[in-house]
Design a protein that fits this description.
about 10% helix; about 10% strand
Length: about 50
Amino acid sequence: MAHHKLHLPEKICLCCGKAFAWRKKWQRDWPQVKYCSERCRKNRHPRDNTK
C-alpha cells in the first residue's frame, strides 16, 4: 500500500524560517497561510507585518 502524503506542498514560515507542509485543516486557506503554528503567528516580528 502506497503512502499518499509524500508530495504535499510546502512553505517557509515567515517567523521561524522552518519548512512546513500542507495540512487538511488549511485546505481552504492555503494561499493565506504564512506561519507554521499559532506560536509563530502570535510572536511574529514587526518586520513581518507586510499588510
